Amino acid sequence: CALPILLLSTVSRSPEGVVTRGLSTLTIDRASSMVRFSAGDFAMRGGALWGSGLVTGVAVSREFSLDPYFVRFPTPQLVQTLSTPSTVDVYVNDRLVRRTELQPGVFDITGIPALTGAGSTRVVVRDGFGRAQTFDTSYYVTSAVLAPGLHDFQYAIGSRERFALGGGDHREAASLTHRVGLTNSLTIGVHAEGDRALVSGGPTLTARLGRFGDFEATFGVSRTASRETGRAISAAWLNRRDSSRNGCSGTGTTASASATSSAPARLIQRANRAANCCWSPCLKRRIRLRDASS
User: Fold this and answer.
1) Do the beta carbons of residue 194 and residue 174 sit within 8 Å?
2) Contact indicator for 221, 200 with CB cutoff of 8 Å
């Protein structure tokens, strides 16, 4: 079948009659592979150490929203053996989310619908004689980690407008972002970007630490056209817990730290060290910490 194509553009007219073109983008989607081709104005992907910006050019990227039923991150699963036809009830945080009739053999329940964060599942198996077996497990689901073997990426090239007090100029720019899931708990990636004035990039790592949350680390280096160099490192930890039974949502604990250095010989300068920790209001405690001096 034909590829879905969308051309979207905006135009504005000032009171003086001046017509200005707004953002214009031509997109071509391949839903079967969840890949999007873009031409025109679009946003480059950034990260913890890199900012995003509008670019006029072309790009190819992964677009998970093309398949609304696709789950890109690992979810709880259970593998068991049945000797008789049975009914399987799946509970997530004491809520019934699935009921399935299964025949004898090995069954693998994957894609259990669970909210991101920490929680528990209970699977009740009732055989044809009315006997019941219960399997209780705990889980921690995070959307920051990709499923094993899954790739997320964006490759872009074009012209980026840089704004200044005296006006703006356009510079040719390119960006590369690629992440891949290695296991259910580990995702690695790389980001690189540059224009005529600056080139920067570095690796990223995201790890799921069981019920202790997820951890993300990024290291970056940069070099300007005048041969000045810089280095930076960023780390963040998040532990999100399901508190819907207490009337709260999105609760959890976060902590992050970063360090930068403009000197090639030293990676971390204490004057640039910063950290913060925040506990959600539903946990009835909030802490913020910052160290901006040596």
Assistant:
1) yes
2) yes
Average pLDDT of every residue of the chain: 78
CA distance 278 to 195: 36
Choice between 119 and 266, residue whose per-residue pLDDT is larger: 119
Read off the pLDDT of residues 14-46 as tens digits, 9 standing for 90 and up: 888 888 888 889 999 999 899 999 999 998 888
131 Cβ contact partners less than 8 Å away, ≥ 6 residues apart = none
What is the tens place of the pLDDT at every residue in 157-214?
998 765 444 445 677 889 999 999 999 899 999 999 988 888 999 999 999 988 788 8
Q: Residues 36, 39, 45, CA angle at the centre, nearest 5°?
A: 65
The predicted structure's pLDDT at residue 283: 40
Q: What are phi and psi of 246, to 5 degrees?
A: -100, 10
Per-residue pLDDT tens over the stretch 214-254:
899 999 999 988 888 888 898 888 887 654 433 333 445 55
- Contact assessment for residue 211 and residue 138, using Cβ atoms and an 8 Å cutoff: yes
Q: How far, in Å, are 12, 94, 114, 196, 276 from residue 123 at the CA level? A: 57, 10, 13, 58, 39
Contact 78, 92 (CB under 8 A): no
- β-partners of residue 170 are 161
Residue 146's pLDDT is 94
The strand pairing partners of 108, in sequence order, are 79
Whole-angstrom distance, CA of residue 248 vs CA of residue 86 = 36
Closest CA to 207 of 71, 49, 74: 74
- For 184, which DSSP code? S
Q: Return d(Cα 273, Cα 289) in angstroms, integer.
A: 11
Three-state DSSP at 64 gives: helix
Q: Determine contact, residues 169/133, Cβ cutoff 8 Å.
A: no
Q: What length is written for the chain?
A: 294
